[in-house]
Amino acid sequence: MYQPAISGHGVFTPAQSISNDELVEAFNAYAEGWNARNAEKIAAGEVEAKTPSSADFIFSASGIERRFVMDKSGVLDPDRMYPALPARPDDQPGIMAEMAQEACTRALEMAGRTGADIDLIICAASNHERAYPAVAIEIQQLLGAQGFAFDMNVACSSATFGIQAAGDMIRAGSARRALVVCPEICSAHLEWRDRDCHFIFGDVCTALVLERAEEAQGARWDVVSTRCATQFSNNIRNNDGFLRRTHDQMEDRRDMQFMQNGRKVFKEVLPMVSAHILGHLGEEGWQADDLKRLWLHQANKTMNDFIGKKVLGREPEAGEQPNILQDYANTSSAGSIIAFSQNSADLAPGDRGVICSFGAGYSVGSVLVQRA
């Protein structure tokens, strides 16, 4: 059995971003136009008028100030309200694979490796741009990697589930060196015309290099333990998929985009995640006071503050539970990895932390790591 370790990490951030003010201006223009077109139905009580959004509402509800996107022009067009990402010919790299290539290159450089050193790639994301061939195999080709590759989808928990899968294969010897890649184009499945959720998501890609600890060439984080759990719930759901045609329902339906019952998610997920982390710590004989940092899924500041306080038994100190969602928004599976990538270099050998992600499923994954 081999000890797996994280030896490199990388983040690809899109060039375009949307501030809350820009987003609100576009949404309110859309809402005003919709209300005008439906004035008679609104007056008759047949439909409800759309309520304007505001930057203050968005920040107080989520802690988000802006988000990066692959295309902002389509999102901010009140007559469109979704990204404009042209289809690519089959002989050109897909957009997810292209994002992944940049993030992986940065992670490989940190680890002192090249694509040829990799024999496992897991593309772990909440949405994939096609059913097959696997995006992971396309990434494998672009990087000149060896071995095998496959896609994984556990919604917002995909990264930690991917780390567990890669770590287990490294422990067992079926893989020597792996990339866990999370290319998230969340802007494509978000309903930008819904005031309750139009501000939630952003686009990004993260990558982690995992390898045998004894072979790591520089600073590393030993993956001490991983733990995953799932519990079925419809409170976060997206009904889009290849079976739509078989239902004779190809129209643009609201349930084909991101759907969430936010209040139930808060009520049900927060205790689940807190208990999961505390249980994982207990299994390994770790105490909350042993943790120097919590890198949590970046969905909502209030949620993270609750979890941090519950796990530590006190209010987290500055920097102890870093948030990046004010700049990136919710990037699904990539959020906890961005937080780790941007807030781990300052820790010293022996320092301990937990990477945790949670979301639709419900799903929750935790990774206990120690700086070597």
Secondary-structure element sequence? EEHHHEHEHEHEEEEEHEHHHEE
Q: How widely separated are the two ends?
A: 18 Å
In round numbers, the mean pLDDT is: 94
Shape: globular
User: Which secondary-structure class do the elements indicate?
Assistant: alpha+beta
Low-confidence stretches: none
**H/I helix tally:** 10
What is the number of strand segments? 13
How would you characterize the overall build of this protein?
The chain is an alpha+beta fold and 372 residues long. It contains ten helices and 13 strands. It is 32% helix and 22% strand. The strands form three sheets. A nine-stranded mixed beta sheet has the order 5-4-6-7-1-8-13-12-11, sandwiched between helices. Strand 12 (352-359) and strand 13 (363-371) form a beta hairpin.
Descriptive key words:
372 residues; alpha+beta; nine-stranded mixed β-sheet; 32% helix
Record the SSE blueprint.
Elements: E1 4-12, E2 16-19, H1 20-37, H2 39-43, H3 55-62, E3 66-69, H4 95-111, E4 120-124, H5 135-143, E5 148-152, H6 158-172, E6 177-185, E7 203-212, E8 221-230, E9 236-237, E10 259-260, H7 262-283, E11 291-296, H8 301-312, H9 325-328, H10 335-342, E12 352-359, E13 363-371
Parallel strand pairs: 4-5, 4-6, 11-12
Antiparallel strand pairs: 1-7, 1-8, 2-3, 6-7, 8-13, 9-10, 12-13
